[in-house]
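Below is how a single chain appears once it has passed through the pipeline. First comes the sequence as given, then the structure the pipeline wrote out for it. We keep one example in the README because the format questions we get most often are answered faster by looking than by reading.
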Amino acid sequence: MKRRDFNRAAVAAGTAIAAGGWQPGRAAAAEPVTLSFLHKWPEPNNIRFFREAVDAFQKAHPGVTINMEAVADNPYKAKIRVIMASGQIPDIYFTWVGEYTRQFIRAGRVLDITHYMAAPEWQGRFLPATLDAYKTDGKIYGVPVEVDAKFMVYNKKLFAKVGATEPPKDWPAFTALLDKLKGAGVVPIAYGSQLAWATVHYIGDLIAKLVPPETRVADYTLKTPANKLFTDPGYVDALGHYQAFLTHGWFNASPNALTHAAARASFYAGREAMMYQELVEFGGVPGTKLGADGWGFFPMPAIPHGRGRQDLLTGAPDGFVVAPTCKHPDVAMAFLNFLTSQPQGALFTTDTGRPSATIGAVTSANASAATLRGIEDIKHAKGMVLWLDTDVESRVASAFLAGGQALMGTGGTPAGVMAKVRAAALQVQKEQG
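Resulting structure:
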């Protein structure tokens, strides 16, 4: 389907939307409706999608005006803190899942949209693992627009050099392959931890594999009694597994000196055998030295006898929430319904290169075969391990981030890192009462 056909279908979908009793066109007969809309995608290809979506919705719904503002990722985090402190909350705004959203829920800054999402038009739109990420205490608070997950991407040519014809099935096979690659003079994994967020993708996955899930969830939400908070031995074990990538020579030297982008460029040039990458990065692989068919991917392998879950994928959806101060929540939800409709979801992926969270929106017409396989992996996963730095309180996250970098340098030990994480968590727990 051509892009203009997507647009035509999207506008048609918009005219058919009803949400929470609000009917299209009603705003034109009553007083005008104005909504504020804040998100984190100002880049040219991203903002084009949102501008055209806003224009299409306004055209289909006379009397509705959506004032949109877009701020890039890191500035967005600073801006949203100021906004929340001021109380002038946008009607619709972006938020990361996990504790990042839960803190706003506790502060009364997010509308419970469970009754909206029970309407027929929402049913079957999102994968359960994706929608579940926006649930707190059984209630739904957000609408996913994109989905992402983490996979180990590998160079088939370098795998073949050591006789590897398929991905490793479990952790022992994985580490044996890493040693084999190193012995053949190949750097096993490209890694850049100069920006600390990269560290928690590894750490979060390993914790989920080695810490019992009920313990992990209770610790992350600070519901564990103080004397046991973050004391499970699986945490130190997970950090030990992570540090072993460096001490065994499975990473390139000095990861803290490289950004993720620099490490990725080196991997794409064929210098390393693997790299832990997000699904949203897959679209850029075919145009590199790896080509369309010279690479594959697999989830981080299961750790036998690990006390956590081995059937989860690290990743998360991104999406939007509605403010409880919104004067027209029915219209806000109608817009989000339109924005995540299948035609608009297809346009989202076409324009931005990012996988839409809407089922059926990512197809062979707008995504690579590898991206489609990644979506299938998410579909079959039993759940998602959310990004660690958004799944815990910000000060606890900071301790994990700093600790992850320390473990890639010369001054950190797993036990020492967890002592600092525990201290941060205890302080936050005490303040929250």
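The chain has two domains: 3-147+317-379, 149-313+386-432.

See the next section for the split statistics.
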